[in-house]
Amino acid sequence: MKICLLPGDGIGPEIMAEAVRVLRALDLDCTMEEALLGGGAVDATGDPYPEATQRLAQAADAVLLGAVGGPQWDALPRALRPERGLLAIRQQLGLFANLRPAILYPELANASTLKSEVVAGLDILIVRELTGDIYFGQPRGIETRDVDGRQERFGFNTMHYSESEIRRILRVAFEAARKRSGRLCSVDKMNVLETTQLWRDVAIETAADYPDVVLSHMLVDNAAMQLVRNPKQFDVIVTGNMFGDILSDEAAMLTGSIGMLPSASLDANNKGMYEPCHGSAPDIAGQGIANPLATILSAAMMLRYTFARHDAAQRIENAVKKVLGQGYRTADIHEPGMRQVGTREMGDAVLAAL
Amino acid sequence: MKICLLPGDGIGPEIMAEAVRVLRALDLDCTMEEALLGGGAVDATGDPYPEATQRLAQAADAVLLGAVGGPQWDALPRALRPERGLLAIRQQLGLFANLRPAILYPELANASTLKSEVVAGLDILIVRELTGDIYFGQPRGIETRDVDGRQERFGFNTMHYSESEIRRILRVAFEAARKRSGRLCSVDKMNVLETTQLWRDVAIETAADYPDVVLSHMLVDNAAMQLVRNPKQFDVIVTGNMFGDILSDEAAMLTGSIGMLPSASLDANNKGMYEPCHGSAPDIAGQGIANPLATILSAAMMLRYTFARHDAAQRIENAVKKVLGQGYRTADIHEPGMRQVGTREMGDAVLAAL
Ligand SMILES: CC(C)[C@H](C(=O)O)[C@@H](O)C(=O)O
Ligand SMILES: CC(C)[C@H](C(=O)O)[C@@H](O)C(=O)O
User: How near does any CA of chain A get to the CA of B319, in Å?
Assistant: First the structure.
């Protein structure tokens, strides 16, 4: 079990430290090596995804990532921005299947801005395609052209999917739906975009191999509405990279506790990168108050998906449930009557609960 | 005042009838002529935007639209689908500025799935660009190519904006923000899409002409989250066609009463098309139970934006507030203790309140 650790920027190193402590406590016979990604990597090497990191990530079975980015790198040219590192590692490792659960822990039901009857027991899985779509399509750029003697700038990007790219992410989603409720909702904009017309066609074709899964289709604008109106109508949602970026963040926020949500990005052989859904939170970095649970739960996802160590994954997940039950809360999920703790103490509590 | 009426499909004709009664009651010295758009137009003429409708719409000062679409037209080839009519009229008339208010009426605060303290008093204006972006960009399509001896389909679309397209919608948004709170949030995905990097650059340049407006920027995934987390942080939001489609529907649903929300789509000279935010609701069409208030409020927007008849617009808006205060509710916004009425009775109530 070779794990590559990428703490990244902002609160990344703090939350990563706790996940590493949890992994070590499980006595798993794994090796962990650390490397640079994002803003810190730019500062140290001039590259958000340096070669040393590339070698380590390619050689590892799994990558555990903290978070990347921060305002100090916003003014850099596009190619040097921290998120370029993220996009590059996704593409280089072929991590096309992004799994983003949106789960509302009963203990945190109050954290949501939605009425409790609307979100109580919420448990959605968003399956987002991660290496295609308008994120990577060519041609793209900004060009200046002469229009009637005036210079004018034009921006353009290309949305693009092949049927095999669509089919492989649909298969991941059908498999996931089969293991859950047997319901899959595919989200597209087929009434406007030909790319997503093909998406819908391939979804319908792929459904023939999964007679036990009920496939439905929804337009992306309607999906954005239905997530607010009645999120519990969904079980597994599958969609493209761009729509998935928007809908998975919307769904995560329905829980009100985005500091709790892990994610997995998998290749075709269950190699994966695991990271919290939240960002690098530069405003609270270095204060020891960030919530490490999403990173700890990302480590659990890693044990489950890449290493098939369901026992160890379950132990971590149970420990997290237990500390919530015991009333431990970091600032982001704190409520009156609960016990507010910092990053390290939350890690201690999880270790104790293991 | 020449008004072109396009009742459209589903509940369109029913809700349009009530808006027309309200307009007539105002004694405005206007002419109203009706034409076909959408599914009904396809059935009658084979074209979702027939030539007779084009002539009428081009000659009119304003268009009032009910809604288009329905399941019976879903299997038609793309070019014949009802929504093609909608896209064609937007483009032909140059209706680039789509204004979508998301307002929560105090009387309907319970209708929202969000906690009342999160949405009470909500009043956001989304300004969506409507004639550019990936909706209309070329090249686009689905192609079959030979890949290593296999036939494979590829889907592609082009996101595209010129700086002048961006500037003119930004100006509309800055003007709107100036008349409201003086705060404008521009939404893009500049960390991934060059097109929206240009969007952000032009937004910053345009801001120089509006020193009294505070411009902020937000990434689209974050905007989808922030609308759920704390929607009242926003006043005016401006964004492109695709992101605007998603975010405006999400914002509308925050109110829980989408049957109340009008919209305007304007050209450069305040010619406009006005329509409710909701769809054609084929499931309840013909039953006389649809909510006509969004269409009636769309007529008010028409009087305000195209005809500068603020007095008459205000009279309609006041009448709608009054009937809500009197407890009149159509089924979609009904609550115990209120007076449930049908489409026609709601129209009667508004007429009485005028
Ligand atoms: C940082 C950014 C490039 C990234 C994305 O858009 O994919 C992020 O928003 C995410 O969802 O992981
Ligand atoms: C029907 C469809 C083409 C249309 C759009 O995507 O613009 C609709 O969703 C809207 O928002 O008016």
Answer: 28
**Structural domain contains residue A299:** yes
In what helix (H) or strand (E) does residue A125 lie, and over which residues does it extend?
strand A123-129
B332 is catalytic: no
- Asked if residue B76 belongs to a known ligand binding site, the reply is yes
User: Of B256, B263, B265, B281, nearest to B14 (Cα)?
Assistant: B281
Beta partners for residue B102, in sequence order: B124
Selecting from A194, A201, A250 the residue whose C-beta is nearest the C-beta of B140 gives A194
| Same domain for A139 and A61 | no
Does any domain span residue A2? Answer: yes
B123 is catalytic: no
Nearest Cα residue to B223 out of B209, B211, B236, B213: B236
Cβ–Cβ contacts within 10 Å for residue A4, how many?
24
Q: Which domain range does residue B6 map to? A: 1-96+261-354
Pocket of ligand 2 (CB under 6 A): A 191-192, 221; B 83, 86-87, 245
Query: Cβ–Cβ of B163/A152 closer than 8 Å?
Result: yes
**Does the distance separating the beta carbons of B224 and A224 come in below 8 Å?**
yes
The secondary structure of residue B285, as a DSSP letter, is T
User: Along the 354 residues of chain A, how does pLDDT read in single tens digits?
Assistant: 999 999 999 999 999 999 999 999 999 999 999 999 999 999 999 999 999 999 999 999 999 999 999 999 988 998 899 999 999 999 999 999 999 999 999 999 899 999 999 999 999 999 999 999 999 999 999 999 999 999 999 999 999 999 999 999 999 999 999 999 999 999 999 999 999 999 999 999 999 999 999 999 999 999 999 999 999 999 999 999 999 999 999 999 999 999 999 999 999 999 999 999 999 999 999 999 999 999 999 999 999 999 999 999 999 999 999 999 999 999 999 999 999 999 999 999 999 999
Q: Residue B109 domain-assigned?
A: no
Q: How far apart are the first and last CA of chain B?
A: 21
Question: Is this prediction's pTM over 0.85?
Answer: yes
- Spacing, Cα B280 to ligand 2 middle (Å): 12
| Choice among B245, B267, B321, B348 that is catalytic | B245
Q: Look at chain B and report how many structural domains it folds into.
A: 1
Assess contact for B187 and B170: CB atoms under 8 A: no
**Amino acid occupying residue B32:** M
Catalytic residue among B249, B267, B321, B348: B249
* A59 and A147 belong to one structural domain: no
Per-window interface: B 261-280 vs A, CB < 8 A? none
Verify that A49 and A100 share a domain, yes or no: yes
CATH number at residue B69: 3.40.718.10
